[in-house]
Amino acid sequence: MQPSDGPEFFDEGTPCGVLTTEPLGRVLDYRAPEGGCWMGAFVQVPLGPRRVIGVIWGPADGRFDRTKLRQVIRVLDAAPMRAELREFLTRLADYTLTQLPMVLRLATRVPGLADGPVTRKLLFRGDGLPDRMTDARTRVMAALEEFGGAGLAPSELAHAAGVGTSVVRGLVTAGALAERAAPRDQPFPRLDPARPGPVLSDDQARAADALRKGQSGYGTWLLKGVTGSGKTEVYLEAVADCLRAGRQALVLLPEIALSAEFLTRVEHRFGAKPAEWHSGVTQSERRRLWRMVGQGGAQMVVGARSALFLPFQNLGLIVVDEEHDTSYKQEEGVFYNARDMAVLRGALNGAQVVLASATPSLESWANAEAGKYTRLDLTTRFGPNALPEMAAIDLRTEALPANRWISPSLQAAVTARLGLGEQALLFLNRRGYAPLTVCRACGHQIACTDCDARMVEHRFLERLVCHQCGATAPIPTKCPECGAEDRMAPVGPGVERLEEETRALWPDARVAVLSSDLFGSARALKAQIEEIAAGGADIIIGTQIVAKGHNFPHLTLVGVIDADLGLSGSDLRAAERVFQLTRQVAGRAGRADKPGRALIQTSQPDHPVIRAILSGDEEAFWQAEAKARRALSMPPYGRLAGIILSGPELEPVFALGNALARNDAALRRINAQVFGPAPAPIARIRGQHRVRLLVKAAKGAPLQAALRDWTRPHKLGTNMRLVIDIDPQSFY
Ligand code: ADP
Ligand code: ZN
């Protein structure tokens, strides 16, 4: 099913191949509709009794009787999908071992795709002149100019000019504004790449120049520099160059980092906001963006990972900011890593790819070492301020009473900062009040009934919550096991419990908790972050969401409550994650003109990872990590695939796992090894039993083909699922 170089246009009635989003696994033959259609056209076709959406994917298979073929119903009102996007989807499906229709769904996830061309009444400049100009009227005409000839709805125009709609109506009556029917979806305001940016530091200028020289074709860059070193400013220069060349730019950010702060910054630089693509965007704005990127009516898109599937007309630059962020990996439906797929899409589009991070993933670091990516380093923070000074607080020598997590040293440091009117951040990567609820009489722990997981107490919600499936239960007063009354006790800290301790220690301080579950929407969370950044809190308590790309100018002290939390995990990337997260969080301290400090509470101050965090010797850390992984042929020096089997009954799931492990000839042919089956670390989710296998192969081995041959002969029982996760990031 390679996108073909066959005919580019199908005359009415000629057979053509259509890929639909239905799970049929192959391209279906249809006759081209009235008026014919282009290769790549989005179409509606009959399928059984239904009408479904598809894309003209290639020539017809031809094995079917032409006279019996059904006809494409109509071509949809959207620019045809370009060959490079079809190629991208095909390669992504091959790489991730996913059915192509599933992948096509990612590229057609837009509301109203099947709507006909819809118009609405918009206002344009008219021929007449008003008898008199008022201030308000002048503002309206100026606002219209700003949109460069694109029409605006009356309410939009009134809003843009900051006047009431009656002023706008008056101008229509006077003939200064004319109403015309125009397509519903209008182009986005033009960004002006000719506007001057800031004067760049030497480091920044060097990086920007290198990117500019590469503009003519594909290339991937690793832009590395601590938080505040000016990476954003550098890649905005690359955006400017890209826009000047008349091409489109895409900036990917982890969902939560998509802040108003960033949009305002782009507006500052280019005179208009970029188009936004993420879960918080309204349906009609999504539809507008999707159509406009296809027609060239959007120059720059800022989006979450799914923006990678937008139908760009001429994509010239992809930036993946915070490239190490684990949220780039999608772990449901199609298992893909947006960071890696950005590199693929860049290569197919002849576009530049910039991976930016303060703490790059070992994968990207190794690719730069190997010369596949070009590394650009920003070595100092922009401006005069230095990196925060880092120190460990040895929990073995601090007298911490039971159920207290803030050591006397940390307490003194926070008090000192508050005295100076500055902000402090206490970082604990645990949501909720307490991770365990235990009966003091019998030791029973409350677990989820559907999952192999303990219930986490959330005092804010007044419920126990399962972090795997989201199930909730009342907080019990009586032990469900032994029946003892009032003996249930929370064990261990979560951010809500830390808040309690904080309020007790500093009763006069304004305390804000940032945890993803405390907010109804991403929008509400972002609003809270902005309020805090503006000085709306003295002490911030946060989970890992505070690590991501927010600027807190008044923050000068970061206290890491438990640096040991992630170190004990058996996860391949445990050390890397702790290193990245702790360095990122520490980097939040001391931006503007005040020096920052980071205090790390740990019981293992001599642990190599903690030492690397404190010394800041990143190269040494990566060298050591790389050496350890290379010795074991682990990624990025070897390849992994996770196989997750699940089903309502454990026995058949395990039997399938055993059958796979026994019949591994296809894997042995490429010298790959299979480990397992073993119960997954979370052996049950939502009542489904889970069993894992792990396949390990050499770096260059043709892993996908072998996995396909290996799994294909096995039939799945009722309600059983087999999921293959290529390059797994998590192993739960
Ligand atoms: P990073 O993306 O590496 O965290 P930023 O690009 O956000 O760094 O820069 C940090 C701060 O320094 C921002 O407030 C930014 O506006 C400012 N800054 C960066 N480069 C320059 C420059 N060349 N001139 C003036 N201000 C700059
Ligand atoms: Zn559960």
Contiguous low-pLDDT stretches (5 residues minimum) are none
Largest sheet: 7 strands, parallel
- What's the total count of β strands? 31
Per the CATH scheme, the topology name of the largest domain is Rossmann fold
Small-molecule binders: adenosine-5'-diphosphate, zinc ion
Q: In the CATH hierarchy, what is the class of the largest domain?
A: Alpha Beta
Structural class estimated from helices and strands: alpha/beta
CATH superfamily of the largest domain: P-loop containing nucleotide triphosphate hydrolases
Keywords: ATP-binding, DNA replication, DNA-binding, Helicase, Hydrolase, Isomerase, Metal-binding, Nucleotide-binding, Primosome, Zinc
Binding site for Zn(2+) 2: 448, 451, 466, 469
Cofactor: Zn(2+)
Binding site for Zn(2+) 1: 439, 442, 479, 482
Write the layout of secondary structure elements.
Elements: E1 9-10, E2 15-20, E3 28-31, E4 37-38, E5 42-47, E6 50-59, E7 74-75, H1 83-96, H2 100-107, E8 119-125, H3 135-146, H4 154-161, H5 165-173, E9 177-183, H6 202-213, E10 219-225, H7 231-244, E11 248-252, H8 260-270, E12 275-277, H9 283-295, E13 300-303, E14 315-321, H10 338-349, E15 352-357, H11 362-369, E16 374-378, E17 389-394, H12 408-419, E18 423-427, E19 436-439, E20 456-458, E21 463-465, E22 472-474, E23 488-491, H13 495-505, E24 511-514, H14 522-533, E25 539-542, E26 555-560, H15 574-586, E27 597-602, H16 608-615, H17 618-631, E28 638-647, H18 650-662, H19 665-668, E29 673-685, E30 688-698, H20 703-711, E31 721-726
Parallel strand pairs: 10-15, 10-16, 11-13, 11-14, 12-13, 14-15, 17-27, 18-25, 18-26, 24-25, 26-27
Antiparallel strand pairs: 1-4, 2-3, 2-6, 5-6, 5-7, 8-9, 19-23, 20-21, 21-22, 28-30, 28-31, 29-30
Helix pairs in contact: 1-2, 1-10, 3-4, 4-5, 6-7, 15-16
Bound molecules: adenosine-5'-diphosphate and zinc ion.
